[in-house]
Amino acid sequence: MIHIIYSAPGARERGSDGQAMRMMKACLWVAARLCAALAVLGAAGAMSPACAQQDSQIGPDYTDAPETVINPAVPHGVVHELVMDSAASTIFPGIVRIENATSARRDAYGNRLAAPAEQVSEPAPYQRHVWVYVPHQYVPGIAAPFMVLQDGHGYVQRLPVILDNMIAAHRLPVMILVMVDSGGGDAQGSERGLEYDTISDRYMRFIESEVLPRVAAEYHLRFTSDPEGRGTMGGSSGGVAAFTMAWFHPELYRKVLTYSGTFVNQASPVDPVTPHGGWEYHDHLIAEAARKPIRVWLEVGENDLHFGDPEYTWHSWPLANLRMAAALKAKGYDYRFVWARGAKHVDARVVGQTLPGALAWLWRDFR
Asked: Is 2 inside any structural domain?
């Protein structure tokens, strides 16, 4: 993996902004291609969806993995749904973004700017949907491994099918999925942004103290306390939330899976401890901390969000994820990084091809 840091002459001079942008895009394109080429080492773009190497590239053509197809010959689990009201939450009572001149501010590349919470948001109620997949093979009373998924609605149709097939084939443990939606909205000033983009253990505490106990009581389930049997997953801001859960509490969560993780400057309000939000992880937090016992699978698309933005915006998803992979590798983490050619943000084609292999890799030695 190359540690990719790039700059372009004139990038900070607004008078040459158009030329600077073209140069920045070229720099990012070349840097990413170099990284992918070195990772694949002559494979000319051919890469197994299982992603056996630490750093790999796939695409630009994609095919759904066979595990994504319903198999009538295997046992099928059950998916339950419950609704949580914000009035019952002490950790996230609810906010909504105020659409005003302050919340509408953008930088030169269209990135929303952070502002004090009272200027861009106000209290507001919400309802949160939570879907719970319980495999057919689950034995009541047994403490089961599980994964917490952010933006749960995006996985309800596909992931239970994958688990039905892979559990039946003994490629995954008999595990529960807790697919949790956010409280709504997106990015700075929103409830979702507050929950997912904040670099602290607040969201993890919400899951542990409010979501899991409710789910366990509603459906008579037991969750394992073994951190090796606890995983978390998400795309975009849900991805950085997944990593944050494990980063702050590896004694609780040690398996992380992200697509197009928002390891960029999107936290709002600004925390002086981590002023650039998720960007802080690959900028210095991972390097400065002792290596934590967490396993990470991460992906980003070649044409992901703000792929042409210069580094000083702290807002390019491809660059942020390339830097995450470099930081994890330099520190000796057990990780896999996938560069998806031709892919966009949380690209469904990439998810369909890679998710079974990513899950198998993540849970490969759990017993």
From this structure: no
